[in-house]
Amino acid sequence: MSRTRxxRxxRxxxxxxxxxxxxxxxVPAPQTATASERPPRLGPCAAGQLCLWEREDFQGPSRTxxxxxxxxxxxxxxxxxxxxxxxxxRTGRPVTTYQSAECAETGEFDTYPSGSWAPRxxxxxxxVKIWES
Length: 133
Known about the structure:
The chain is α+β, with helices and mostly antiparallel strands and 133 residues long.
């Protein structure tokens, strides 16, 4: 290859490389999870408690239940007019949440093992039952 051809190739390659670099710099880099995609921050819930929050993601007013003030394997409705949208089970026992205030199994219900944190219940929780084990 002649010296002239090599110089011409280098002159055309340099602008092409600069354009390619500029294009790459103009394209935004993939972002990590945004604030709305990040997992919610866990709400405060002490060992031995069942904690229920009025809103999703452990937000809003919370209510707690402890074994000392809850009949085991009995339906415990939340206070009239209140519901929960997120919960943490730190009771050391399984807990079932119910859509029905009477723990009726005709509505939605789910059982959460001890150590569960649920930022979004699939329904408004109106009653709970703590199981022996």
